[in-house]
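User: I'm putting together a small comparison set for a docking exercise, and I want a reference complex before I start. The sequence is below, and the ligand is protoporphyrin IX containing FE. Could you produce the 3D structure with the ligand included, as structure tokens?
Assistant: Of course. I'll restate your input first, then give the structure tokens for the complex.
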Amino acid sequence: WQLAEQYGDIFTVWMGHIPAVIFSGFEAVKEVLIDHSEDFSDRVETPFLTTISRGNGVVLSNGHVWKQQRRFCIVTLRKLGVGKKSMEGQIEEESQQLVEVFAREKGQPFDPALSITYSISNVTCAMTFGYRFPLEDETFKKLIDALAFIMKIGFHPFHLVYEIFPWLMKHLPGPHKGALHAIEMLVSLVKKEIQKHKEQKSFQEPQDFIDFYLLEIEKRKNDPTSTYDEENLAHDIKDLFVAGTETTSSSLKWAILLLANRPDIQDKTYKEIEDVLCSSSFSYQDLKKLPYTNAVLHEIQRLKYLLLIGVPRQTAKDVKIRGFLIPKGTAIIPNLRSALLDPEHWESPKEFNPKHFLDQDGHFVAREEYLAFGAGARVCLGEQLARMEFFIFMVNLLRAFRFQLPPGVKELNEEPVAAITTPPHPYKVCAVPRCSSS
Ligand code: HEM
């Protein structure tokens, strides 16, 4: 923010000898993501990121590999029910499990973070592996630990030094080594699942992401342009876990914290849910009937945006923009957070204000400035899934509990932790069962 105030919407930051061009504010970010979507659609290739992905998967790949893997992921997520009733059932089941876990706390102060992460990860497990893990499963715990380790290293000083002196950092101990080990562990865990699927030949009647992918490998085995192989499959799944777990879990952690700090908004949201849904079962489509709830969920993800700056890009060719020439291969950071907090576009950018997404008659208003999931060629491919998860989990949690501050606590800390994602600091809250609170 300070650099943008001093140098304008577009400026360069040097990380050692590597320049990165930052785009700040809604207008500048939109130019990158939408107006120049193709020019800026490559992901940045740095020593650390290349070591992690080796050009495989979807989040960090480029060119033909990226196009094929991305397309496959989108089509398969749809086949697996994203945006449809079948996936809603899976999410509903996980959210009910979470309600049960919270209920065991009997309204006493507790830290909800880990159970939320378990539930969200299990949605991805069911989608990719075809089954969910029991919470006490050792493999599952390893998977969650590995994800946590990976998220901590992004933008950590050791990560940044690695990008500048990779030859040195490869030999030095530090958290970067732990993160690389965690990624290897995650990929090898996924490879074991792939092996199991192959042995069971379950892909003949595909039920999950691995099945569909193995079938695609088989179909395309004589196609020289095919990038479908087990390495890409393992990295696609690693990417779905890394991109989908911490982001969606952090949204839920922020939601509970912000609503516990704002009982009036929590009660108003609950009332709308009860008045409209009348304690009956509900579906994702019902979100349209709940404008205030919808506005509150958007405002949570706007104010407490959970990516530090978004996911960096790189110019695919020389690009001229606002009179600047940005050479091919330059790292680009469209600062999504700056668009979500842009004072030119939001009435009260630093305040929690659901009216940002409501018109005068209380109808929900979709805002083009709301770029939480990015936009253009690289737009988040899990957006639909993330929205479904956030809505279904929140409705079930708010119906079951009133989230309250622990006795003696005046307010929960709203400062984020800064890493790749920006979750809240650990906190305790009381989930008071609705039936006993009323
Ligand atoms: C609240 C939750 C989430 C937020 C805020 C979020 C946000 C984002 C953003 C900003 C990007 C980068 C877009 C760009 O470069 O312009 C992204 C990419 C991506 N997201 Fe999400 N995401 C969320 C949940 C998910 C979920 C649940 C999944 C899948 C299970 C997912 C999978 C991906 C993948 C695979 C990419 C890379 C796409 C590509 O490079 O082509 N995300 N996400």
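Residues 33, 58-59, 70, 124, 239-240, 243-244, 247-248, 251, 306-307, 310-311, 336, 372-374, 378-382, 385-386 surround protoporphyrin IX containing FE (CB under 6 Å). The chain has 17 helices and ten strands.
User: Thanks, that's exactly what I needed.
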